[in-house]
Amino acid sequence: MIRTADVFRLAPESQQTLHAALICILPSDDGPGAEETLAFDYVERVLTEVVDGERRRHFLEGLHLLDDVARERHGLPFRLCAREKQDDVLTHVLGIPHRLTQQFVASLIHVALQGFLCAPRHGGNHGGQGWAYLSLPETAEAARP
Amino acid sequence: MSRKRAPQVDVLIIGSGAGGGPLALTLARHGASVMVLERGPRHTPAIDYVHDEVAVAMREFFGPRLRDDPHMVVRPDQPTPQRSRLGWTATCLGGGTAHMGGYLYRFHPDDFRMQSRFGTYHSVCDWPYDYAALEPYYSRAEWTVGVSGRGGSYPTEGDRSRPYPMPPLPSHPVASQLDAACIARGLHPFPTPRAVNSAWYDDRPPCSHCQWCAGYGCPTDARGSTAATLLRRAEKTGRCEVRCRAMAYKITVDTRGHATGCLYFDAEGQRQRVRASLVCVCCSAVESARLLLLSDSRLFPDGLANGNGLVGRHLQFHATSSARAHFRRDRHPHLSLDDPFPNLDRSIMDYYVLPDGVAPIAKGGLIRFGLASRTPILTAAELALGQGRFLWGMALKKQLREIYHDTRTLNFEVFHDFLPSDGTYMTLDPDVRDRWGLPVARIHLDPPNHHAIAGRYLVDRGVDVFEDLGADSIERRQQGDTASFLVHGTCRAGASPESSVLNAFCRAHEVPNLYVVDGSFMPTSGGAAPTLTILANSFRTADHILASS
User: Fold this and answer.
1) What is the distance between the alpha carbons of residues B153 and B8, in angstroms, rounded to a whole number?
2) Helix spans in B95-207 (H)
3) pTM score over 0.90
4) Which pLDDT tens digit goes with each residue over B372-429?
5) Pick among A24, A26, A78 to test the B interface (most B CBs inside 10 A)
6) With an 8 Å Cβ cutoff, is A143 touching chain B?
């Protein structure tokens, strides 16, 4: 993590891992996923502006763990692994008998979904594409600044 | 502290929810000068009550912020205190009524005589008054707040002196199939009574059926929060002042042991004082007890009105059990599941008494059927992470689309008693302070096993109905869990000062001009959602105060 003038920013490697993890959670195979909806922007904002230091630290440790497990099992950082190998990494992390690993995967899935389906003013669900994927009617929230 | 002379009022009401609202309206209308202190903000519904899951459900909109104002919870299997929202209702004008689903059931007559009817079990006892004494006030609450329903719908309902002021809300067509399935089992389904307008009422519009109900504010005030229904009218009398962002931290007393008002922190964090001839504490059960314990003095060294050590004891939440059933639309054309209408609103009270031998005592509860909310993040998260699952990738996306395009989900929740016992109570936390530097509440949670056992039985009965409807899949979710928002019991009402904090009119035995009027008074939590009972009791207490003055 890089800290600049009391504004927390993700280190580039963590950004890349997070980006890849979000796409793994919500791929673009059959319609918009995390990439098209800019879920990363939402999640980055949550990490830097919303959550407290302890929760942020645990989440970042989880991202590092994804890379560690990916390197150990597949010889590559998480972001460079093929989809099925990324699935394997997540499954393996879930199997680690520690409360915090399961919490991390749950948090990752939950923020990915938030970024996919939130009101666009929070930085995700770009253009309401997440809602459109589910055929949800556009609401006033879509236009709210 | 401010150097200005503290205001003097006839009645000080601390808290603006289901307990404080009826007091404010009744007493102001009858000429009393009233001040209501509310620790949270006043919202403007049309602006603040947005249909935004992140802003409302994930950013602690109805407060408080867990890091600033937690309750600390200890359990036998988790003795290290944990920060929790357990026991918080809301911190805003209207309290929990600002975001309630508005299920305003009357208790059954048996709820008032739990020990006589069901026997001895832990600290279960009878109420100091019966259903007949409260019935007129149930009607007053229904007509003042505005409840839509149909009286006389089921055979075990208590006597009713007036019908509901509004007919039931419209229901999704599947309600007729659900009714038929229930009736075939000998059950008696009835429209769920709601504090939600089915017609124009009290200058407030009918419900727009937006699907953003429980957990969210109502932007049109079609739902009857105390802010929209009671406090609004109380303020219009010109005799009721509401001060928001006012955190009461000590009730003051004189040398005779009479309450004289309170000290509070204002919105700027400055200490202020209010003087009053009569003080009513209506902060919801955990926080009301906390305020009494914080109000220790030379005359009340263990907390105000706590000479017998019972303030904080007999804490009860509500037991909650639930399940959901998924129906593929193409397999059930007769259920009209393509109809997007969001409300089902059916309840059954046939399992209020359990068969002998099912549970430690034969007290059951009420099953409320509904259509599962389709707010997207909640729906997706329950799909991905519910019941211990971890779902991601194309499997997640595929099932998510199926949920929205191909299926419809019915659910039910069970309201049933969280029975009082010595194991569940609250104290002041010795270590943790809130943002004002005050000890927070520590909740000791060790409920008896009745509601887990009853919950499993009641879930099975609700599942019976889903199976009769031909559900494609059913998930049992909570079975006898603890509901966070419904809180009771910490200042038990009773006839004896040795075994209760309050008398039958919610007046503190030890302090003649102090009342505690929220869920704190309830000796037992009831087998239905308690909000209407709290409202009715508050109206009853208000009448008593008028008669006594």
Assistant:
1) 48
2) 114-118, 131-141, 174-184
3) yes
4) 988 999 999 999 998 889 999 999 999 999 999 999 999 999 999 999 999 999 999 9
5) A26
6) no
